[in-house]
Amino acid sequence: MLIGLVGKPSCGKSTFFKASTLADVLIASYPFATIKANHGIAHVKIKCIEEEFETKCNPQKGYCIQGNRFVPIELMDVAGLVQGASEGKGLGNQFLDDLTAADAFIQIIDISGETDEEGNETKNYNPIQDIKMLEKELDLWYLGILKKAWKAISKNIQTSKSDFSKTIAKQFSGLKVNEDDVREVILKNNFDVERCSQWDEITLEKFAQGLRHISKPMIIAANKIDRPSSNENLKKLKSEYPELIIIPCSADSELALREANKAELIEYIPGENNFKILKELNEKQKEALENIKKNVLEIYGSTGVQEILNKVVLDLLKYIAIFPASANKLGDSKGNILPDCFLLPNNSTALDFAYFLHSDFGDNFIKAINARTKQAVGKDYSLKHRDALEIMTK
C-alpha cells in the first residue's frame, strides 16, 4: 500500500512525512525544497490482540507499545504542486508521474493562511483556494490521459462494440483503475456509454473526475493548526467542504514529540493526547513541550498525524488488520510471538488471506481456524478487523 502526500510547496508535506517516518529529509521554508519523491515507512495504529491471548508480542515488522500495534505502510512525499502542474508548470510532470502508483492521497494544506498559492510567506491567504487548485489539477491530469486516446477509444467502442469498462480500465491501468471502478462511475453518474462518441467536453471532464475520485481517494490534513488564524480557517474550510474528511494537525508538534521520544527525553505513543517526561529538561525544551501540550494536545486531543494515517487506511481505503495465528501456537518457527499483522481490503475472505500469505496456501487451502473461537471456517469466510486465523492446507 502506498499513500501519497500532496499539496502546494511549503505547506508542511516534508514535516508531516518526517514526523510519520522519522526519515532524514530536508525540511525548509522555501518552495520546492523537495525535488525527488521521498519514500518511507509510516504506521497504522490498531489495538493488538496480545492481551486477549495473555501474551506479549514481538513484531518482525512494525512495533507494539502498551498494546498498540503499529502496522507498516509506505508513505511518499512528492514535490509541491502549483497551478498549471497538469501542463508541466513547476515540477508538475514529475509530481504526477510520482503519484501514479499511490492508492490514496493525503493533501497537506497550510490552514494558517501564512503561505500563498506558490508557497511564499504571506498573511491572510485563504487555504480553501489550495483545495480548489489541487482538485482542478488532479482532474485535469486524468482528463488529459482520457483525451489523449479518446477518439480512438470511442471509435473502437462504436465500431467493434468493445467493452467500455475494459477499454477505459486498460487506458488508466497505470493509475490503478480497474473495470469495477469504471462501472461504478458509470452507474453513479448515469453516463450513456452507448453514445460515448457524442460526449462533449463537460461530460468528459465529469467522467475523468469520477475516475480520479474513485481511484485516488483523498483526505485533507489541515496542518499548522496551532497558528493564530488556523482554527477560524478550519471552520470555514469544513463549512465549504462538508463532504470531505478534514482533520486538523500539527506536523511540527508530532515531529518534536517523536524525536524527544526517540532521544528518551519523554515517553510518547503516537496518536495519544499526552506524554511522560523521563529526564531533566532545559528551559527551552520544557517551554516547547508545554506549548505543544497547551496549544495542540489539550485542544485537539492529539497532533492529528496518527489519526490521519489511520483514517486514510482504515476509513478511506477500508482496509482491515489480520493476524496469522494459531489457537494453540501463537509463535513462528523462530519463537516470535504474533510476529505478523497484515492489512487487507475490506470484504476479503479466508481464501484471499491464504493467497495473500502465499500462492501455495491458496492453491492448497482446506480451511482456516479462528484462533479466538478455535472453530473452523471455510474459504468464503468474511474476514473481520483484528481477526486471528491459521490457514490449513493439504
Describe the structure.
With 394 residues, this protein is an alpha/beta fold. It folds into 3 domains: 2-37 and 78-138 and 217-252 and 297-313, P-loop containing nucleotide triphosphate hydrolases (Rossmann fold, 3-Layer(aba) Sandwich), CATH 3.40.50.300; 161-211, no CATH class; 319-393, Beta-grasp domain (Ubiquitin-like (UB roll)), CATH 3.10.20.30. 38% of the residues lie in helices and 19% in strands. The protein has helices at residues 13-21, 92-99, 128-148, 150-160, 164-171, 179-189, 201-215, 230-240, 251-262, 283-300, 305-316, 350-357, 359-363; strands spanning 2-6, 38-47, 63-65, 68-77, 104-110, 218-223, 246-248, 266-267, 276-277, 319-324, 342-345, 365-370, 376-377, 387-393. Strands 1, 2, 3, 4, 5, 6 and 7 form a 7-stranded mixed beta sheet that branches. A hairpin with a 5-residue loop joins strand 12 and strand 13 (376-377). The two termini are 30 Å apart. The model is unreliable at 30-34 (pLDDT under 50).
The span between the termini is: 30 Å
> How does the major sheet shape up?
7 strands, mixed
Structural category is alpha/beta
Please give the radius of gyration in angstroms: 23 Å
- CATH T-level topology of the largest domain: Rossmann fold
Compute the number of strand runs: 14
- % residues in beta strands: 15-25%
> What top-tier CATH class of the largest domain fits best?
Alpha Beta
Unreliable spans: 30-34
CATH architecture of the largest domain: 3-Layer(aba) Sandwich
Q: Name the CATH superfamily classification of the largest domain.
A: P-loop containing nucleotide triphosphate hydrolases
In the residues, how many domains can be counted? 3
- The coarse overall form would be flat
Q: Level of helix content?
A: 25-40%
Question: What's the mean pLDDT score?
Answer: 90
The DSSP helix count reads 13
- Element-by-element helix/strand order: EHEEEHEHHHHHEHEHEEHHEEHHEEE
